[in-house]
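Assess this one:

_____
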Amino acid sequence: MKIKKCSLDDILDLQKIYRQTFFETFSEQNSEENMRIFLDKAYSEEKLKSEIEDKESETFLAVEN
């Protein structure tokens, strides 16, 4: 495994991981509609792009070598 700082090229991978992890963790306690609304808002490409571009924040990804 290698830890790397995320770039804009990683947005779709991050989005997939975030959505899957959140869904697996919280879907039993929420309706399908509420899950969709939250996932679409919290993990949109625009939101992730702004987080990666934020100079006050760093996002890392573990990747297999």
User: Anything to note?
Assistant: DSSP finds three helices and two strands in the chain.
